[in-house]
Write a structure and sequence with these properties.
Elements (H helix, E strand, L loop, with lengths): L12 H13 L31 H5 L12 E3 L3 H8 L9 H7 L9 E8 L10 E9 L4 H15 L4 E3 L4 E3 L1 E4 L8 E8 L4 E9 L2 E9 L6 H11 L1
Antiparallel strand pairs: 1-2, 2-3, 3-9, 4-5, 6-7, 7-8, 8-9
């Protein structure tokens, strides 16, 4: 995950021979200083960029949306039991486990920290407008965020025919691409279909942090405004 670029200055055998020949032929007169070869390694080598450091739980807790950010929605705290359950979630198909994790507030890949909340629409929105969004922030060292997002994209293709999440007693029958999301460094949107309704999974990347939004409701697109607010807070 961390690439180190090493520069080596190498003088070939032919170059050495040529240098010796020049010295021998000109030994009877002082060498012009402007023709003197520069000492190897005199040029300063470029400094490799420091790999990004992932954020901690405490740092992400300050970045995730709050009730003040989404006043027309209701925020619910995620319980320790829900976090523990997310850490053990599985799928009947190993290649689909990452989608099951994203659905259940789990951390995708090897994260350095995580923050979670649940955002729901008020009852005043009516039955058609009701929905619940599980929102998870995760951060990573180096290129971990890029790799985690790539694993979700790969699963979206590999699991097109569906999969099961035993812990949630849920059966996804189809996975298909969803509408594009803008404003992030990279993103993937998937529509997860079951016998009852369609749900929406969106994972966006800002730097080395992922925001994962999983929405259940008759109109999952209503959660995109929450995601927009979250992207703004991530900078």
């Amino acid at each position: 995950m961390r690439n180190t670029i090493v520069r080596r200055s190498v003088m070939t055998g032919s170059a050495v021979s040529l240098a010796l020949l020049v010295v021998a032929c000109s030994s009877d007169k002082p060498a012009d200083k402007k023709d003197e070869p520069k000492a190897a390694g005199s040029a300063s080598a470029p400094v490799a960029a420091t790999p990004a450091k992932g954020k901690t739980d405490a740092e992400l807790a300050k970045l995730i949306v709050t009730q003040a950010d989404v006043r027309d929605r209701m925020l619910t705290e995620v319980t320790p039991a829900e976090v523990a359950a997310a850490a053990t979630v599985t799928s009947d198909k190993p290649e689909c486990k990452v989608l099951a994790q994203a659905q259940t507030l789990g951390a995708i890949g090897t994260a350095t920290g995580a923050a979670r909340t649940k955002v729901s629409t008020p009852e005043s929105a009516g039955v058609a407008g009701l929905g619940l969004t599980a929102l998870t922030l995760t951060s990573y060292d180096g290129k971990g965020a890029e790799e985690a997002l790539a694993s979700v994209k790969a699963a979206g293709t590999a699991c097109a025919g569906g999969y099961a999440v035993p812990q949630a007693e849920e059966k996804i029958t189809k996975v298909a691409p969803g509408p594009a999301v803008t404003g992030a460094d990279d993103a993937v949107t998937l529509t997860l279909s079951s016998d009852d309704l369609d749900t929406r999974l969106v994972v966006v990347r800002k730097g080395n942090t992922l925001a994962t939004s999983y929405t259940v409701g008759l109109k999952p697109e209503l959660a995109l405004d929450v995601l927009d607010i979250q992207l703004t807070k991530l900078g």
